[in-house]
Amino acid sequence: MEAAAIRSLISHLPSPTSPKSSTADHNLLLSVKLPKPYSKRRCNAPVRVSLENDGDKSKNTYGAIELQRLVDEYPYEFNSKDSPSLPRPLTSTQLSNLASEGSRLRVAYQGVRGAYSESAAEKAYPNCEAVPCEQFDTAFEAVERWLVDRAVLPIENSLGGSIHRNYDLLLRHSLHIVGEVKLKIRHCLLANRGVKLEDLKRVLSHPQALAQCENTLTRMGLVREAVDDTAGAAKLVAFHKLKDTGAVASTTAARIYGLNVLAQDIQDDSDNVTRFLMLAREPIIPGTDKPFKTSIVFSLEEGPGVLFKALAVFAMRNINLTKIESRPLQKQALRILDDSTNGFPKYFPYLFYVDFDASMADQRAQNALGHLKEFATFLRVLGSYLVDSGMA
Ligand SMILES: O=C(O)C(=O)C[C@]1(C(=O)O)C=C[C@@H](O)C=C1
């Protein structure tokens, strides 16, 4: 299927972002390992970068690095292989070649070194340069501003369910889903050397990780406290040499931060899998030769049986749905949906995120979406990508 044909189905396809066209420009904080020329000339990698130069040169030896200036000075390095003026969609073949040829793609993930998301990024793009970001939003922005090439972010877990924040961010940003990667999550209870299980009163971790170990932690009588990511929890426990506090994280985090593993496989079910999305500025051109999946988001007018009718467009074409998620439409998103918001009810309008087992190159998928578009108040294709049927 031609790219033009795919685009015609994507009614709200945002225009490609170029490095010079960035708009919002505050507080993008991320840790970036700068490419070689910068690390040699300017500072030791990894560094912490603030786009907002508050003028306080004393903050580090080099002052706050203005990333935008670097982008302007060295567009080639920041733009990777894609031409900024002529962005071309990546094909699925190109994507797998990039990985197998070992190109050093820069891939943003949320968390610090040792987070599960870092492992997911490395699984998705072997030999990539994994770039830690403080928040999910930062990872989205880093791709949009051409600071990195891709982002790999968690979207759902087999025990804890959906990661709602990332569903909301998918709509607010204009990135495309170009792949998925599933990772088996095996949590450990970590503590400083010499600390025993009976010494612990509380445990720190990412809220998803705490939820995945709910029963075990209750049995252990530990008070739970949420932090940004699992590895961040391990780092905190190690850095402050806490004696009464442990962390739920991976064995990798234990190794990096020098913690002991007090208990292994503490998740409530051994089948604990997190699905991550691979995000890029450009969509891939889907094929039909391999199993593809498509993710869409849409909204409907209120009325009896409207959702039933929407789901029927897939059922009548024998298309299998693999996921459905409904999220309340937030006011901020209304701006993104602009002129298509007339049909929205005043309170509790919902967005429906649906994944289905078909490529956008498949005639059945095109017909189903054509049909859905006839009565949906808003419809966007988030991406068509290869199904990850393997497990790490
Ligand atoms: O905190 C981490 O290590 C993460 O990578 C985040 C995260 C998540 O957001 O779900 C990823 C996988 C696990 O499900 C637990 C936490």
UniProtKB/TrEMBL annotation:
<feature type="domain" description="ACT">
    <location>
        <begin position="295"/>
        <end position="386"/>
    </location>
</feature>
<dbReference type="Pfam" id="PF01842">
    <property type="entry name" value="ACT"/>
</dbReference>
<dbReference type="GO" id="GO:0009094">
    <property type="term" value="P:L-phenylalanine biosynthetic process"/>
</dbReference>
<keyword id="KW-0584">Phenylalanine biosynthesis</keyword>
<protein>
    <recommendedName>
        <fullName>Arogenate dehydratase</fullName>
        <ecNumber>4.2.1.91</ecNumber>
    </recommendedName>
</protein>
<keyword id="KW-0456">Lyase</keyword>
<dbReference type="GO" id="GO:0009570">
    <property type="term" value="C:chloroplast stroma"/>
</dbReference>
<keyword id="KW-0809">Transit peptide</keyword>
<dbReference type="InterPro" id="IPR045865">
    <property type="entry name" value="ACT-like_dom_sf"/>
</dbReference>
<dbReference type="InterPro" id="IPR002912">
    <property type="entry name" value="ACT_dom"/>
</dbReference>
<feature type="domain" description="Prephenate dehydratase">
    <location>
        <begin position="106"/>
        <end position="281"/>
    </location>
</feature>
<dbReference type="InterPro" id="IPR001086">
    <property type="entry name" value="Preph_deHydtase"/>
</dbReference>
<dbReference type="GO" id="GO:0004664">
    <property type="term" value="F:prephenate dehydratase activity"/>
</dbReference>
<dbReference type="InterPro" id="IPR018528">
    <property type="entry name" value="Preph_deHydtase_CS"/>
</dbReference>
<dbReference type="GO" id="GO:0047769">
    <property type="term" value="F:arogenate dehydratase activity"/>
</dbReference>
<keyword id="KW-0150">Chloroplast</keyword>
<keyword id="KW-0057">Aromatic amino acid biosynthesis</keyword>
<dbReference type="Pfam" id="PF00800">
    <property type="entry name" value="PDT"/>
</dbReference>
<comment type="function">
    <text>Converts the prephenate produced from the shikimate-chorismate pathway into phenylalanine.</text>
</comment>
<keyword id="KW-0028">Amino-acid biosynthesis</keyword>
<keyword id="KW-0934">Plastid</keyword>
<comment type="pathway">
    <text>Amino-acid biosynthesis; L-phenylalanine biosynthesis; L-phenylalanine from L-arogenate: step 1/1.</text>
</comment>
